[in-house]
Design goal:
Elements lengths: L26 E2 L25 H6 L3 H9 L3 H10 L8 H11 L3 H11 L5 E6 L5 E7 L5 H8 L16 H9 L18 H9 L2 H8 L1
Antiparallel strand pairs: 1-3, 2-3
Helix pairs in contact: 2-4, 2-5, 3-4, 6-7, 8-9
């Protein structure tokens, strides 16, 4: 970006790096990363339709996660999606999202919403501390997943003692499948306690924040 101010065109910029799985590495601070080579396993995000492993089932994008992504979109984007799915596009954003959720029961509409919201773009994966200091940054070519954050964490010298992620069920499952010889999230796959019926009942009776920590 800096060099663009000194050259006549993009083609003459000697610092341009075209995005590809071979050259698109994450940024991790020198004192944080394990070595000068860091992980980027995005090419493994594409699961075969025949894959039935527990990890693939857990990491598949659920309807709830898709709705969460819809909640982050601007009303204009949601309205366009409604029109594309032949759904009434009038009303508040929540009205539109509820209609789209009902429409997701139709597999064709589900795939269309998935492609627009989840499958069509990449994004950023950022690891930061509670003070907001960025320790790792990864520009994703495909939609963000737990794999991206484990690429970063497994490239660190030391795993953090506590990891907070918005897909608490998927991250430890993916991590423990990748490193079965030294489980990154243990005990209880990152939960506060084992997911026994007794503990689940206790979590349901507690505050919502504790419920999330217990159930994952």
């Amino acid at each position: 970006m800096v060099a663009r101010g000194f050259v006549s065109s993009r083609t003459n910029n000697p610092f341009v790096v075209e995005p590809s799985y071979e050259t698109w590495a994450p940024w991790i601070g020198q004192k944080t990363r394990m070595a000068n080579s860091v992980l980027n396993t995005e090419y493994e995000k594409v699961f075969s339709p025949k894959v039935t492993s527990p990890e693939a089932q857990v990491l598949s994008v659920s309807e709830d996660r898709l709705v969460d992504e819809l909640m982050k979109q601007k009303v204009g984007v949601v309205r366009k999606l409604c029109k594309a799915c032949n759904v009434d596009s009038k009303g508040s954003r929540m009205d539109l999202i509820l209609r789209l959720r009902a429409e997701m029961q139709n597999r064709h509409s589900y795939n269309k919403i998935f492609q627009k919201i989840w499958g069509a773009s990449g994004g950023w994966s950022v690891v930061l501390c509670p003070h907001g200091v960025v320790y790792s940054l990864k520009f994703n070519l495909r939609a963000e997943s737990p794999r991206d954050f484990m690429d970063l964490l497994l490239s660190w010298q030391h795993l953090p003692n506590v990891t907070i992620y918005d897909f608490a069920r998927g991250l430890p499952t993916h991590a423990n499948f990748r490193v079965p010889s030294s489980l990154p999230f243990q005990p209880y796959e990152g939960r506060l306690a084992d997911s026994t019926p007794e503990n689940i009942d206790k979590a349901k009776q507690s505050k919502e924040s504790l419920k999330c920590l217990f159930l994952g």
